[in-house]
Inverse folding.
């Protein structure tokens, strides 16, 4: 689907023409998914959350899985920008703008989903004016807004020629901010001492590793898709460079997963929850082994390292897509798995009867409104990227043909 | 361009003002007069209440939640006790029902009320649970509550 | 001349403005309030930290088939089920336990433990979940945004989320869709001048079991404080060092 690019101003970047039937179809499709998500929000808000699969036991659900996934990926999507602006790898410089756009878009999508799932989304102003500074959620409000402002500033330093000289310091601050932000996201769970599936500080660096992995995969997919749709050729060096980096990050995530589960298997008191997650958790266990480990980590590693597939772009794209799907599975296991396992309130005793589902594993049945809300968030992120590319010069003029 | 006021632009505003000035009670240009409440008078003058009742309530809610102060002058429960109407059969009507005390002004002003999603819009029916706390300091309010049916 | 008179007017206007401005500034600096926001404080005193409300639950007196406390709580606060046990609110519940080693069975009511170091208060982003000075842990539903983070944090799964539109709330117990709630030790009762006990304790007494004792933990003369001083009691999840206000005996 080659289109003629409109060259305006700078000769290195352009806007996408955005007048083909394919473009309109894409925008319409994304808008339809967003509309479905908004309908779902309306249903949840007017009827109450009983129309969802979330209960007093499984307190968070699919919307949160998607939201946390989008937010974690958003942080990592800036990897390409950091590689060029902070670490000086000039090969990635043309893609820094797209990287920042993707990061902003993903974060906005994630924040929208999590806000629309609130019991009282009309009280967003309250959330932005009343702060309990002991709460990780409150820190995150500042971290996420700061991230958006910094990313916008970074984009401006890239797009405004006079400001190019401060790109590196801004990008460095942004990189540090990302690390703090993703630590904050991981600590949402890490500080919950009551729940045995959480309650471990390693969740912070694990989330950072996850963000690096998912973000690089998302950025790689975006670059490949953009190149394909606009008839531009993405350099081999860029594709394989990102592929190698992604392989390292996937390995890093595997490391943290192994350490976090290993420590809990070894330490006294956590055997119950580990047994549940790794063996007896039904859907949770399948999601962990088939979704997160095989499809999300080992499969992509194989595809990216085994020469016949490692050289092939479609296979690399498939590997990146699998990393993202595996990421969703991983966050599902974290959120839902942690909630499904019952709280151990009475050590040494068995609960034989309870009026509030104590001592039993809770089952989660996702509902349509939740799924639509989550997908609506993803669609919103994609739509922001697509429309952004039409409005401002994000698209690098990499060499055409080939 | 001369900086002269364009009087033609002011015309709609002038017409509106004249209309409001000439409007009679009950016309659509003025807020509706709510149905009369029990007791002699409200805990604050009417114009003060019209302007500041939201501030009183927001301040009082913090006092009640955090300090445990109940039955004070600006208690929401106190408002409802006085301002809730009963119909011909003696059944009490919610204060946020159409045409009733809160709703009549709020729908005119187009301001959404958040209160009655959680708060009861009718007074308590059970006298025991609403036993008069000794903390009420407003004699007017105390007299009203003692005189209301169902409260001992 | 026009210019001259204008200049004079300018000077006097400037002088007026500077003097008024100075007066306002000095007044504000001196603490004179030009706009007085209404202060709706009643004369009676606010709650203070000299009291700490708590409960002592004697599991040996708790009858396993009885749910009077649960029923009383529902009646008091207008908690009606909607036929959806997974999402229906529950402020107190009965739990029956069997010891893994000895096989001994006990039953107990479980509600918000009103911790001194509540995890739910720590995690609430808006500060809606808070601990009152006299020890009661509450949700300020005016600023609760319904994020349910506190529900994740609570070690006792004490909190419920309101999953549907509610009507016919009790005037003394406001509850609404989209906010989180939990046992509030019947603050509307304990705040009364004559101070009644929570509905669950009253109902247990009425049933003849007397398993739930309520009182001021800091008052050495109160029944609860005396019972705690005389006999061994435990708090749930003591490993978390929450210092709960609800204690259990003979668990």
């Amino acid at each position: 689907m080659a289109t003629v690019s409109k060259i305006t101003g700078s000769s290195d970047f352009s806007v996408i023409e955005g007048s083909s039937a394919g473009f309109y179809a894409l925008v319409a499709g994304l808008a339809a998914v967003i509309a479905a998500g908004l309908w779902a929000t309306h249903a949840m808000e007017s009827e109450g959350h009983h129309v969802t699969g979330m209960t007093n036991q499984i307190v968070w659900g699919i919307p949160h899985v998607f939201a946390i996934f989008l937010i974690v990926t958003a942080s990592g999507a800036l990897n390409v920008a950091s590689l060029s602006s902070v670490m000086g790898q000039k090969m990635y410089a043309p893609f820094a703008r797209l990287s920042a756009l993707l990061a902003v878009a993903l974060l906005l999508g994630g924040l929208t989903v999590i806000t629309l799932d609130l019991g009282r989304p009309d009280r967003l102003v309250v959330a932005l004016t009343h702060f309990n500074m002991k709460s990780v959620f409150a820190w995150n409000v500042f971290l996420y807004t700061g991230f958006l402002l910094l990313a916008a500033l970074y984009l401006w330093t890239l797009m405004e020629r006079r400001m190019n000289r401060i790109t590196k310091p801004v990008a460095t601050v942004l990189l540090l901010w990302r690390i703090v932000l993703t630590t904050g996201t991981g600590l949402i769970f890490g500080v919950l001492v009551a729940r045995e599936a959480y309650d471990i500080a390693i969740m912070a660096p694990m989330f950072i590793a996850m963000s690096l992995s998912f973000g690089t995969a998302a950025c790689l997919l975006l670059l490949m898709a953009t190149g394909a749709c606009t008839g531009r050729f993405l350099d081999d060096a860029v594709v394989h460079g990102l592929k190698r980096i992604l392989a390292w990050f996937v390995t890093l995530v595997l490391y943290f997963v192994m350490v976090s589960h290993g420590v809990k298997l070894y330490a006294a008191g956590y055997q119950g929850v580990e047994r549940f997650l790794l063996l007896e958790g039904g859907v949770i266990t399948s999601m962990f082994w088939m979704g997160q480990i095989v499809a999300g980590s080992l499969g992509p590693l194989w595809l990216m390292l085994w020469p016949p597939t490692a050289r092939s772009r479609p296979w690399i794209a498939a590997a990146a897509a699998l990393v993202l799907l595996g990421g969703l599975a991983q966050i599902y296991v974290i959120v839902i798995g942690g909630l499904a396992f019952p709280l151990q309130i009475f050590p040494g005793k068995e609960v034989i009867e309870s009026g509030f589902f104590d001592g039993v594993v809770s089952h989660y049945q996702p509902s349509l409104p939740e799924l639509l809300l989550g997908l609506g968030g993803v669609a919103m992120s994609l739509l922001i990227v697509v429309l952004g590319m039409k409005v401002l010069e994000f698209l690098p003029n990499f060499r055409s043909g080939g | 361009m001369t900086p002269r006021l364009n009087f033609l632009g002011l015309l709609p505003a002038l017409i509106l003002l004249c209309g409001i000035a000439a409007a009679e009670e009950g016309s659509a240009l003025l807020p509706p007069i709510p149905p009369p409440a029990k007791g002699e008078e409200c805990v604050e003058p009417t114009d003060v209440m019209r302007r500041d009742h939201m501030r009183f309530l927001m301040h009082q809610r913090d006092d009640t939640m955090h300090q445990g102060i109940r039955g004070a002058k600006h208690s929401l429960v106190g408002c409802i006790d006085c301002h809730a109407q009963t119909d011909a059969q003696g059944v009490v009507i919610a204060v946020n029902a159409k045409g009733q005390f809160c709703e009549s002004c709020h729908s005119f002003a187009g301001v959404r009320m958040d209160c009655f999603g959680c708060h009861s819009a009718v007074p308590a029916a059970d006298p025991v649970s609403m036993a008069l706390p000794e903390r009420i300091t407003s004699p007017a309010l105390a007299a009203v509550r003692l005189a209301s049916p169902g409260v001992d | 001349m026009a210019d001259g008179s204008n200049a004079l007017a300018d000077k006097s206007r400037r002088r007026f403005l500077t003097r008024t401005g100075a007066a306002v500034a000095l007044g504000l600096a001196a603490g004179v309030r030009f706009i007085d926001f209404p202060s709706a404080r009643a004369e009676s005193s606010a709650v203070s930290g000299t009291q700490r409300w708590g409960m002592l639950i004697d599991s040996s007196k708790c009858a396993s088939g009885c749910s009077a406390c649960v029923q009383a709580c529902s009646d008091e606060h207008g908690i009606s089920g909607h036929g959806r046990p997974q999402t229906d609110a529950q402020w107190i519940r009965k739990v029956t336990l069997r010891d893994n080693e000895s096989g001994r069975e006990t039953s107990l009511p479980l509600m918000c433990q009103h911790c001194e170091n509540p995890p739910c208060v720590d995690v609430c982003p808006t500060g809606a979940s808070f601990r009152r000075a006299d020890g009661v842990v509450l949700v300020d539903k005016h600023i609760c945004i319904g994020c349910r983070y506190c529900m994740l944090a609570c070690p006792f799964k004490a909190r419920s989320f309101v999953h549907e539109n509610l009507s016919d709330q009790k005037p003394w117990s406001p509850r609404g869709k989209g906010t989180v709630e939990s046992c509030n030790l019947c603050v509307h009762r304990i705040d009364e001048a004559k101070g009644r006990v929570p509905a669950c304790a009253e109902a247990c007494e009425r049933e003849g079991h007397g398993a739930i004792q309520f009182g001021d933990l800091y008052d050495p003369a109160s029944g609860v404080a005396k019972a705690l001083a005389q006999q061994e009691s435990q708090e749930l999840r003591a490993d978390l060092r929450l210092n709960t206000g609800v204690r259990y005996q003979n668990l």
Q: What stands out?
A: Chain C touches chain B through 37 residues (CB under 8 Å). The radius of gyration of chain C is 27 Å.
